[in-house]
Each structure stands twice: as structure tokens, then as C-alpha cells.
Amino acid sequence: MSAIVWIGEDAPPEQLGGKGAGLARLAAAGLRVPPAFVVTVDGYREAVDPRLRGELERAAAAISPDAPISDLEHLAAALRERMLEATARHPLREALAAAYARLGETVAVRSSAVGEDAADRSFAGEYDTHLLVRGADEVDARVRECWASLYTARALAYRAGRSGELAMAVCVQQMVDARAAGVFMTLDPANGDRSTIVVESVWGLGEPLVSGTVTPDRFVIDKVTGDIVRRDVVAKPYELARHGSGLGTERREVAAPRRDAPSLRDGELAELARMAKRVEQLAGTAQDGEFAVAAGEPPDNVHLLQCRAETVWSRRERRPLVGQRSALQSVVSTLTKEHR
Amino acid sequence: MTTAPTSFQSPYDVATPEGAEGWEQMYNWYHQRGEERRAEDEQRFWFHDRLHHPRVLAPYDEIQCECWWQALGAFNTRILPMPPAHGVDQRIINGYVYVSPVPADPAQLQARAEIFQRRAGHYYENWDAIYEEWKVKVMARLDEIRAMDFSPLPDLEDDSVIFDHRGYSTGYKMIQDFQRLVVVMYETYQYHFEMLNLGYAAYLTFFGFCKQAFPNITDQAISRMVGGLHVDLYRPDDELKRLSKEALRLGVDDEVTNAGSAEALFALLGESEAGREWMADWQRTADPWFLFSTDAGHPGGYHDAKPWIEDPDVPLAAIKEYIALLRKGEQIDRPTERVLAERERIAGEYRALMAEEDREAFDEVLKLARTVFVYIEEHNIYIEHWMWATFWRKSRDLAAALHEMGAFDGPRDMFLLRRSEVAEAIYDIVAAWSVGSRPRGADYWRPIIEERRRIYEVLKAWDAPPALGRPPEEVNEPFTVMLWGITTDQVAAWLGGAGEDGRTLQGQAGSPGVVEGPARIVRAVEELDDVQQGEILICPATSPSWSTVFSRVLATVSDVGGVMSHAAIICREYGIPAVVGTGRAVSSITNGQRVRVDGDRGTVTIVD
């Protein structure tokens, strides 16, 4: 497998990691995703030589599951440091720079972990995501940080005492200059209603929302009729935006009336709902994902950034409400149940 | 912060408005409060029935609420029987109708459910056939009252009384016809409830099933899976559209659109062949399709609401508008095929989202809901429009005849008498006519009528409180919620006052969307002409005969009705927001005020 694969090219999903495989699925379905490439799992193996991988794994395996947190943190920091230093002159540098050059100026570099458990945590922001990265050297450094993020304290604690090969793909994605961004789910996480699409959004970049540090606007859309059945629009006093220098991000104040205005327009919500529904149909199971809305008009300004299987409700066993029952039995039950 | 009260004013503490003393004589005694039932009444929850009787009742019109008081009650309590619910009790207070659902004894629930299952099952299984029988029964009653003639009595009886061996006088016939007129209306109400509550129970079942499977599903989405059939209720509007096309085909469209009034138009059309042809078409169509009440709210509730057939300027205005649309090349027909295809798509998609084991049960309740829904939508045309429109017409004929024969000073005075008093007035007139002497008539009734007219005017201006007595903690009686749109939230809002400083009204989300615009209050059909493009319609309720206004307005707000009310259904069809059952939008909002209508949450906010 080649070390770098473009989204849209044929590649086995296990080579792309969770995020990369999700993006590949979206692109294959003709849904709007920003151009991106993936440094594959084989790419990781090529860049991080077996000797180094063995060394890091042995150190990680030696830690006791009951070790104090501070010990874990120290060890994790040391292992990440070691990874960054040892990969400083990795063999993929030129290929990575060339791919980046094709993508354009500003990119997001996101770790795309292998394995389902890893995918769970990546959604919660456990692994690294770097926004607004510019320049080949910067991209290279961020890719290596993604590799190094295999060794966070929490990951170590989880893996303590377990064996198995560790690997990490990395996704490099053209940055959508987000006017607003957020997440969607193709069911209602509060009650498991599968006829519902829930969208949460904020002004600017979606990261503060994903990491749970701000209260977003919330929209509930009926998957079948497309009606927006609920809008909870909140004050959004801050947004994460491109830094004035063009590099990195900064927290910026949002003034009224924009502060109190809905961060998504109806046309954008409609396009999101359409894409979310399609994503779910393709996967055959409930999905959640991230999106960004650029300047311009819907539907063309709405981009999916990633998606994956919803896990909480999808794993729960679905019990039938009533099972087989005649209409008459249903009527009698309706008329008597409130009063039992 | 003050805590909201948990109870409304006692119905026994409601005072008579100044100048309306003695109003009790205008209504039947059994319909009113009585000290002997005070303790019981005060423990019950009463709400003003703005759905059926938004305005003060004229004494004669008490017939209307008595019809459903008895018939609904008998079917729920004694016939079906409806397991959790008895009938809906009524009290008239200051001329306004207050109602209170009566729960069945919980200890009887299972026993009643077993009987219900057997009896309801018979109707559900044979629904379409029973409905066909039903139409025959009701049409026979309609024909009977349609044939009644309440002209002033003749000086000398016709030859036919002799040569046909009729054997009785036309005076006796007037006495008898009036009794029949009233009794037939009561009889028709038996049929009205023969099927309606069963229909609602089935619809409610489907509704509950969907809510259970999809907690977030909207009431609108549920109704879209069931409604949309080409039912007779839409026929009057369809006939207007057809007449509009005919006017264009016959080349009389200019005459129609330029006409100042229906009267002037008909005079003009009489002069040409094409004009006469179109007019003949109108007349053929008018009976029965223009026996269509323009009453705001529940049609047929009041003697003074004119159906299209008596107020031809109303259908004419709609035809003018349709012709204008046709000239612009627009499509005016109801997109029935599309609505039906959409109904299948929506039901199919929800079904697919359901746990597999539930899909068969879903199919069953959906099928039943669709079967009964035709009746739920259509019975209005037979009873509320045709029967009542005819009943009130005949009543007005009688009132005019009695006036002419000296019973009353005015042609509408009769409506200030209770129905038993009308029977007395007829007897007085007929007796005098028979013996060739002078009735007591107007001399007797004059002071009574004058006093009542004065009281009636005072009561008209009285602001009837939305609720009285002690509300239940949860409003879960199915018909209260479904029919009147009264929910636990609504009761809480009433208890807490009209919302923050009275600027926000809470109703039910009838049709989704949020818009802002200038308000236009429409209390009756005469005010429809004032509605301008881009306004927000604020009304007690809407009527199917108002259909053309919905292409003009941005949103609709009504005082009464739930999600199955006409206002909600029609707005969903037109894709405009609606908030229904706000209780007091008409009295809280003034013309031209900017309001924001949130059809997603069911709120209306006065913005300036």
C-alpha cells in the first residue's frame, strides 16, 4: 500500500484509519467533502521504523494499570518526545510535502486512529487535530504529532496490560474557512428517536463545540419530512477563528446581533439533513459527524468533515414497542393505558 | 416571584355583568348552575368551549349545544361505551358555553373495555359499509327539512287540502314542522356521534403509536400520513375552481372579475347566452355545494352565519381570485396526486425506521386511521354545513313568517326566544289564525324581546374567562386534547396569565415555520376582504370557506383548535406557519401590530 492515498482513490479502509475511511465513504457517495489525503497505516510503518516501534511498545507495556496518573503522564510525555525526535528525518517527508503542495495553503491535520475503540475516543478529541496549518514543515511537524498522540496518558492507561500492534493514519484536509461549524447525529441522543437528525453548531470553527467548551445552537430536524421541528438558538459570545496572522486559531468575541442569531440558515440545515440522511443510508446504521459551512450560499457551502457510526443507541438492543397486535387491540390499549 | 394559582375562579363566583341581570331567563334551567350542585361543580374543571361556541349564544341557538351535549354523552357513556370517558357536561354562564369532560369510574374500566372491544370491532370491520348507510340516513333527514315550507299561513287553504284528503290545516302543519325541524336536528346528532368518537379513538391510537415510536415526531407529520384524501370537504372549493375555469372557457371572465356584486353580475349575465349558461351552472352547483358555512370556527353554530348560497359575494370573491391566477397561468387545482404520493413516502420512511417487530402493528393502525379519517373529515360537510345551514335557513324563514303574522316586531326577534317559547309563539299565532282572531303575539313578546336584546348586547361584550374551577394535574382525557387542543401546558399558561407582560401567547404548533408580519384580525367572513398580501391572519378559528385567504397571508393564528383543526390542516397544505388554540389572540392583538408567529413551538409574540 502506498504511504499516501488521496481521498477518492481506491484504498482498503483499514489503511486509512477511522476518519480517513469515513471521508473516503462520503466522497465515494458523491457528498461534499474538502479535498484531502491520508498518510496511511503502511505510511506510518514506513516512517516509524520497527526498532523504534518496538522500543516504545516495550516501554508502554511495562507500566502497571494501577500506576499513579502522574507516572503515566510522565511516561507518556517521554514516549511522545522520543517519537518526535526519532521521526524528525522520516523517509516520507518529500512525498508529504509534494502532496501538501497539491492541496493548497491552509490545511487541517487530523489523526485517524485504527480500531473501533480508538475511533470512539478520537471523536471526543482525545487524539490530535490541528487546524489552520500552513507550510510544508508545519504540516510535517503536525503529522508527527499525530503519530505521537498514540502515546497519551489515557491511551496508555487503556492499553496497559494489553498487546497488539499500534498504528495511526493521518488525514490532511484542505481547511474549510468556516463561517459556522458543528456536529450532526442521525438520531436524537436524548431519546434514541431515529426519525430525528440533531444538529449543533457554533460560529467559526467547530472545535470548541466538539470539545464541549461552549453551548451551541441546537436544531432538531425530522428526517422524513425535512421539517425543522425545534430550534434552540443561544447566545454565542465567542468563536474560534483563524488567527489574524493567518496561522493557527484565536478565540474572538462575537458582538450582537450576530451573537444571538442562529449560526445556520434553513437552506444550510436542509442540505445538512439531506447529506446526513444519505450517510446513514450508505452505512446502514445511525451516524454522527462533523461539518463546516463556508461563506457563500447553500447547498454548495456545506461540507462534511467526517462521520462515523453512532455507538450508544445503535448498540442498545431495540425492543419492540408492541409487537404483533391488531388495530382493535391497539385502540383498546390506547383508551385504557393512561388510566390503569 | 409569586406562585401561579392551582385553581381557576369558581364557576359560582362568576358575576353577572352590569346590565345583564336576569340573563338566566334566556336559557334552559337545566343548562345552568344550581345551588344543589355547587359542591360538585366547583370540584370540576370547566373551560369555555371556544371551538363550537366562541360567541354568546342567542337563546334559540341553545339547540346547537344541546344536540351535541346529549348525543356525544350517550355514545360515550351508554352505547359504545368509551372505556375511560363519559360525556362532556355543559353549563351556560352569562350566555357562554362552558364544558367539562366527565371521566368514567376507573373501577369500571376493564368491564367497559371488554364491551367496547366487541362493539367498536363491529364498526371498524364494517366501517365503509356503515358509512354508506350513514349517508343515506343523514341525506334522508336533510331532504326532510329541506322540503319544509315556513311561509306565512294562507288566508284560505288551497284546494289540495280538500281534494288530496289531507285532513289537517297548514297551521297545524306549522306546529308539527317546527317540532320535526328540531327533533330531526337532534336525530342527526345521534348519527354525528354514531361514528365520530370511534373515528377519533382510532386516529388517537395511531397518533399515540407514532409518538411512542418516535418521541420527536410532530403532530403535523402524523396527520400527513393519514390525511390528504380527495374528500367531499374540499369539494366546495373545487367547485369554485371549476366555475372559474368555466368562466374563462365561456368568455365571461371579464364580466365576473369586474362585477361589483353577485347581484349585479347575475343581472348582466342574463343578457347573453354564455352568461346564462354560466349562471345555470352556478345555480346547479349552489345546492348543495354552496350550503357551506362561513362561520369562523366550528361551522353551523349560530343562526346568523350565512352560507355561501345566501351570501354569493363570498364565493364570487374567491372565483375572481382564481380567475386572476388562471390568467397568470398558475395551477390552482389541489395537488391531490402529489399529496397522496407524499403521504405514502412519509409513511413508508417512518415504517422503515421502526423496529421490525412493530411494523405490522403500525400497518394495522395506519390502515384503520386512514379508514376512519375520511369520516372525520367528511362528516362536517353533511352535518355542520348542509344540515345546519338548512336548519338555520328554515328557522329564519319561520322567524320571518311569524313576524309577518304579528308574533314579533322584527324578522329576527324569534332568535331571542328559547325553543320551547318559540313553540308557544307558534301556537298563539296558529290558534288566532285558525279562529280568525287576534293573537297576543308581539304585544306579549315585545317587553321580553326588548329586555333580552339589551341583555344580549351586554353579554356580547363580556370577556368570558377561558377556564373555571379546578383543573386536573394532567390533562390527558383524549378528546379534550385532540378536539379542543387543551393541554396541561395550556392550562398552566392560563393559570399564569397571558405570559410575560401579555406579549407572548402560548398555543399549539399547528404548522411549522417562523415568520413576522403585521397582524390582521378577522372575526367574521365580512372582514376577509380587508386582508392584504403579507399579513398575519388572527382569527377565532378558520372555516373551509375561507380557503382563498391562505394564499395571501404569511401565517395564521387562531384562538381555538388543536392540530387537527381546519386552520392547522390548511396551513400545512399551504406551507405557512400556524399557531392554533392560543385562547385569546383576537382580544390581545390589534390590527397592524407586528407579531412573530413561531409555528415550531406554538408561540405568538407581539413585537411592537
Explain this structure to me?
The complex is a heterodimer of chains A (about 350) and B (about 600). Chain A is an alpha+beta fold and about 350 residues long. Chain A folds into two domains: about 5-175, Dna Ligase, domain 1 (2-Layer Sandwich); about 180-315, ATP-grasp fold, B domain (D-amino Acid Aminotransferase, Chain A, domain 1), CATH 3.30.470. Helix content of chain A is about 35%, strand content about 25%. Chain A has a six-stranded antiparallel β-sheet with strand order 9-8-7-6-12-13. A five-stranded antiparallel β-sheet of chain A has the order 1-2-5-3-4. A two-stranded antiparallel ribbon of chain A has the order 10-11. The radius of gyration of chain A is 22 Å and the shape is globular. Mean pLDDT of chain A is about 85; it is low at about 115-125. Among the domains of chain B are: about 115-230 and about 360-435, no CATH class; about 230-335, no CATH class; about 500-605, 3-Layer(bba) Sandwich (Glucose Oxidase, domain 1), CATH 3.50.30. Chain B has 20 helices and twelve strands. In chain B, the strands form two sheets. Chain B has an eight-stranded mixed β-sheet, with helices on one face. The longest helix of chain B has about 45 residues, at about 360-405. The two termini of chain B are about 25 Å apart. The model of chain B has no long low-confidence stretch (mean pLDDT about 90). The interface between A and B is large, with 38 and 48 residues.
Compact overview of the structure:
The complex is a heterodimer of chains A (about 350) and B (about 600). Chain A is of the alpha+beta class and about 350 residues long. Helices cover about 35% and strands about 25% of the residues of chain A.
